[in-house]
Amino acid sequence: MTANARRTVSVAAPFVLALAALTAPAHAAPEPRHSGPNCQAIDSFAPNKNEEHTVALSDGHAYAGAWDKKAKNIRWQELSDNKGYPARACDITLSEQGNNVWIKAITTDGKVYETSCISPGMKLICNKPWTRLH
Fold first, then answer.
1. Helices H, strands E: what count in the chain?
2. What is the pTM of this model?
3. What is the per-residue pLDDT across 57-87, written as a single tens digit (0 to 9) for each?
């Protein structure tokens, strides 16, 4: 098993638990939002040996995160709170060039939306609204 494969495996279980903790408080049932439990997705890109950015979709919530090499985990931020987040988002992907990161989501009815982030240094800042692409 390669080092990257071991890292992927070691991140998978905590990732699922972290998303569950973010989306549903222990004391309350989760409120149905957007896509429901049938749409789950994750995508990552490593622009260099020191950085890795990941987007994930879980239970109607979208997240973006930067790999924290020292802590050996992903620092997540929610994207579904950004203005214009698409209802029924069902898949998510990202692309990067330089310090620019673009995140696209597709809905269950085939509409594509995009937001963007900046990546100064080891951070990922995603506070832009979502826009529908035509």
1. 1, 8
2. 0.71
3. 998 899 999 998 888 899 999 999 999 999 8
Beta strand segments in the chain, E: 40-48, 51-58, 61-68, 73-78, 89-97, 100-107, 112-118, 131-132
- Kindly report the number of other CB atoms within 10 A of residue 21's CB atom: 10
Q: Which two tokens stand for residue 95?
A: 């692309």
Q: Which long-range contacts does 52-57 make (Cβ < 8 Å, 24+ apart)? A: 53/94, 53/96, 53/101, 53/119, 53/124, 54/94, 55/79, 55/92, 55/93, 55/94, 55/103, 56/15, 56/19, 56/92, 57/89, 57/90, 57/91, 57/92, 57/105
Residue with tokens 């004391």: 27
User: Residue 56 and residue 88: Cα distance in Å, rounded?
Assistant: 14
Cβ atoms of 124 and 77 closer than 8 Å: yes
Which tokens is 94 given? 């990202």
